[in-house]
Fold:
Amino acid sequence: MIYFEYLILAVLVVYLSVRLSYYVDCLDKKTNLSGAFIGGVMLAAVTSLPELFTSLTAVLALDQPDLVQGNVLGSNIFNLCVIGGLVLFTAKRYKDASIANSHKNTLIFGIVMYLLVLFAILKPIEIGAGFFKVNLMSIAILLVYIFNVKTMGEDTSGAQEDDEVYIALTVKQIMIRFLLFSVGLVIVSILLTQVTDKIATELNLGATVAGAIFLGVATSLPELSASVNLVRIGNFNASFGNIVGSNLFNFIILCFADVLYVKGGIYVNESQVMNLLCFGIFSMVCTLGLIYFKKKPAITRVCGILILVSYVTSIALSM
Structure:
C-alpha cells in the first residue's frame, strides 16, 4: 500500500509541475526577460519546489538532515542524467542546437558549490549565537547563486525565434493559477517526504540512500517532464537551463535547511554523501563536455554515457 501511495504522489508531482511550467512559459511569452533567466531561474525554481519542501519537511517534521543531503545530491545527479540521456538520443539535432553561454558558467558555479559543500562537511565553520547558527559555507553558496542569477539575467545568447502565440489569459490570471498549483505542489511534496521516510524504515535503508533514490528521483520528475518536452519542440537551450539552474537552486535548499535545523549542522560526514559529492562533480564536468564539444557528436555521446554510468554507480556504491 505504501508503494502505491508513493506512486500516486509521484504522478501528482509530475502533473502539478507540468502545469506550473506551462504558466511560467505563458509569463515568458508576455515578458521580455532573457531566455537563460526564464529557463535557468524561473522554470528551475518551479520544478525545484518538490526538492525544497520535501527537504524542509525532512528537517522540521522528521528530524532527518541526512535525508536532505541525499535528496539534493541525488536529485542533482539524476537531473544531469536527463540531459545526458536526451543528448544521447538526439545527438544530431543537439549538434545544431543553440545553447546560451551562461549555462557553461552555471555548471562551473555548480562545481564550486559542490566543493563548498565538501568544505562545509570536512571543515565546518559555524557563525551565529545561541540556537541560531549557520555554516559559513551556506552563506558562500547563497552568494555564488545570486551572482550566477545576475549573469543569467544579462545573457541574451541562445535565443530562438518563436512564432507568435496567442495566450488568452491575462498576467493576473496566470499568476493566480500559478500560485494555486504551487500550493498543491507544496502539499503533495510534504506527503511524499513522509511516505519516503516510511519506505526507508520498511526497507531498512539509511536516510541518505532513501533520499538519493526515492526522494531524489521523485522530486526530479518535474525537471524530467519539462526537459523532455522542451527538447521535443527543439528548445535545447531552455532544457539545459532548467536542469543546470535546478541543480544550483537545489544547493540553496541546503542553505535553508541549515538555517532551520537548530539541532545541529545539516552537513553530515558519511560515506554515502561523499560518494554523491564525488560523482556529482564528475557528472557536472561531463555535462560541461556536452557544451564544449557540442559540434562533435562522438564526444558528446561519450559524455552522455559517462553521466548515466556515474548516476548508476553512485547509487550502487551508496547501498
Observations:
- The longest helix spans residues 171-203.
- Residues 139 and 255 are 7 Å apart (CA to CA).
